[in-house]
Amino acid sequence: MKPVPKPTPETQPFWDGTAAGELRIQRCLTCERHYFYPRPNCPRCGGDQVEWVRASGRATLYSYVINHRPAPGFEDEAPYAIAVVELAEGVRMMTNIVGVPNVPEHLPLDMELQVVFERRGDVSVPLFEPAGGAA
Amino acid sequence: MTIVIAGASETDEVGRLPGHSTTQLHLEAARNALADAGMTIHDIDGIATVGTPGPVQIAHALGITPAWLDGTGVGGSSFLFHVRHAAAAVRAGLCRTVLITHGESGRSRVGAGRFGMGPDSLLGQFELPYGVVGPPTSFTITALRYMKETGLTHEQLAEVAVAQRRWAHLNPRAMYRDLITVADVLDSRMVAYPLHLLECCLVTDGGGALIVTSEERARRSPVYLLGSGESAESPMISQMEDFTTSKGFRLSGEAAFAEAKIGHEDVDHLMVYDAFAHVPIYGLEDLGFVGRGEAGAFIAEGHTSPGGRLPMNTNGGGLSYTHTGMYGMFAIQEAVRQLRGEAAAQVPDVEVSVVLGNGGMFASAATLVLSNRLP
């Protein structure tokens, strides 16, 4: 079984979003910039007037490793990429890349991606596949 | 007030020590450092160490009643933070002489703390769900971005391990001493592409301790603390601002160099925390010894190897000497040995040594500027 994240009060809206098939991130009403991970204040300007918005789900591949020593639940997928993607809104998050062989030739940095969701128990986690769908 | 390291020692052995608990490693290192300083527990009124088992237990086990405690636990850099904090405390008159200890049964896991973060922690929610298996699969995640943006090659990354093995070859205490080639590194097992086994640090047992006090209390030739700096960036590597440079490295380095009033040309010896082969590359650039994207070639050309103009990680580093999990203590110990002229792979005429410590995965950082003379 892959690890299942357990929401906390300040992260619950993020996980409510993924369960609904939406990638929701926060945006500061003062400096108008998006930020991630969920927290009650803007890390750039310190403002606490913030809102949850639906992200476009578009992203690019910022960096990754290809892990040859699988974590529990990932045995069937090793070697697999652990990636950091940059959303169109400018924030980054860790994820996995699906719908494409996880080998360097198929994972050029800056390739365009789109969000998909994987159900794990009561929670859905955001993963990313090549823009335009699985190869 | 002039602050000095008046005593420094590691455990009798480092490596595989299944007969030592974590606490024993702390206590053995502490006794060795006291003996090195020509002091006893009655000289110590300040204690600093990380969370396992923590300053209360270490002080009590040694028979020390502290007037000042520091339990800063921000990863492998913590002991550099302790030196900086101890210096401030001694200057402020909060205590007179501080004992800083490290002990970690990283390999044998005897009496060791547990790993793991809950599923409701920050990492548990936003990194661990993606199959992270500790530092080898996440500390390394910046490397490909760095390679793309600077042109660093796989061969140059491998050269970091080759260079450090040259130093370990000269150090009888190092765990791995046989000379290696770039091909050996690239042929070693892939752990997390682009990092091979020989580009990843060891996992060992061991410890070390330091005694920080004012110059007049030192009973042997001291090592002077000329400057220090500390900073932090992100608790999750995925949230690091720029994957090609460490903010903590830059800021702590700038602060330490400024306080010490030194320039790069003054530095004779350098220790950069090397949990993985890419980290010394970031260290060289973020401390300003070379320009952006130049560190790979600098190391490959031999400038950090024996006989080079900037000897770096002269004990063999975490890649070849030892790495208990929180390596920073060993980086400081090697700088002290070099400044005393007591190192196994002694560099001639070392007067100024810089130590850069990493904590977590580019999460915290501290820099010390040490010297065997006052400017």
TrEMBL record, chain A:
Domain ChsH2 C-terminal OB-fold positions: 52-118
The protein's name: OB-fold protein
UniProt superkingdom: Bacteria
Record organism: Nonomuraea fuscirosea
Domain ChsH2 rubredoxin-like zinc ribbon: 15-51
From TrEMBL, chain B:
Ranges of residues in domain Thiolase C-terminal: 229-372
SUPFAM superfamilies, alphabetized: Thiolase-like (SSF53901)
GO MF term set: acyltransferase activity, transferring groups other than amino-acyl groups
Domain of life, source organism: Bacteria
Pfam families in alphabetical order: Thiolase_C_1
Keyword vocabulary terms for this entry: Transferase
InterPro entries in the record: Thiolase (IPR002155), Thiolase-like (IPR016039), Thiolase_C_2 (IPR055140)
Protein name: Acetyl-CoA acetyltransferase
Species the sequence originates in: Nonomuraea fuscirosea
